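G., the chain you wanted modeled:
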Amino acid sequence: MRITKIGIAVMAICGLFGLSVVNAQEIDSGVLPVDLETAIKIALSENPLVKVADMEIEKKTYAKKSAYGALLPQIDIIGQYQYTLKRQMLYLDTDMSSLFGGGSSDMGNLTPEEQLIAGVLGKLMAPDPNASNDGIQVGRKNIWNATMSVSLPLVVPSLWKNIHMSKVDMEIAVEQSRSSKIDLSHQVKKAFYSILLAKDSYELFKQTYETDSINLVNIKNKFEQGIVAEYDVITADVRLKSIIPNILQAESMLKIAELQLKMLMGIDDEVPVKIIGSLSDYEEWMFEAIVPSDNNLSGNTDLRQFDLQAMQAKNGYEMLKLQYLPTLTSTFNYSYISQNNDFKFNTYRWDPYSIVGVTLAIPIFSGGQRYNNIKQSEIQLYQLQEQRNHLKRGLQLSVKNSVELISKSIEQVVAAESSVEQAKKGYEITQKRYETGMGTIVDLNAAALAMTNAELQYRNAIYDYLASKADLEKTLGYDINSKN
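Predicted structure as tokens:
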């Protein structure tokens, strides 16, 4: 009866740790199966950061169109109303007869109509010698103005350079979008590999717990039969209980890794997922991966962005130099003006007024601002060149480090795989020796611990390989297994 109760307790504990697996199987119809490729695809389509980067491309597209629009005519219709608080004074210090080609002595040369007009104006506007400061008020109270203004840049070098800068801005936005996708794929890979490591560790500890539970039952049976000492029972029981924290820790790491993966994929935490695969699945092709031996950084997104930003800085430098060149613009204005002292709109008279012209602006002196700005831009270009050299050396070092870690991880996988086989064989031999009374419980626990450590080292070696490979792919800017 006692043995039966122990067996029931062991199965209950094992069932507790396997509860999540059972539940996943029961609700399999509502679970989202996720492998690495699926996780990356969902992340690239649902992650907010990628969406923001794609929106930036669209925004730069409109900015590029706006830059081209500066070369087209700018047309404005302007309506204006002014109320005159005090009208302007007009002073004339000449004889009105001079407006018709001469002085008063020449009045005889005028036609009768011109003489009449000159006489009337002379009476109204000729200055009084005794009141030389008198003048007349001009204008009316209400001034209405409707104008259509058209301007067209003819020769404006800075506008042409601005169009080229908008193209580079577009390229920078595209590269930033590519960078966000590469970085997201890298994070998804690392998170997915972490889940596989936690999942394999959890299953390994759970399997070890089940095996040790059976061993504990057998040892208790032998103790009741008087074959082994109570020390063996206590030691086996302590070892069994020491595995529980490892199981709980692995389960906690698995949940955290799943939450991180869901966040990167842009899905809710409540959505149940089922991770497909294990670390051992990647061993089949890890030896076939062709790891590049050179430091070709043409696909590195950080270096590409830096080069584009340096190109933009050079364009800014050239635009500063273009400020020394003259500009030529054309203008055309057509206006209708009406001046009145009342608001009787149906009696208003509208007078047209139009002009057309060109404006030539030649920069002469600006207090040295243009010169000093160009010198600043030149220093910035030198700084960018030095920063690029430093960035490239750092990236080359990162590539070499990743390649070394990949090679080291492959060697560790080979060694760990052999170690696992030897540890399993040693555990089997030790278990048989203990069952026949030739070995001790200490030897059995040591063999079991060695087998567990070998399994963990094997899985950690595969994880280190996959993590280093993901780091290398991020640095190179492409999947080293793809054809790109």
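The radius of gyration is 44 Å.

Shout if anything looks off.
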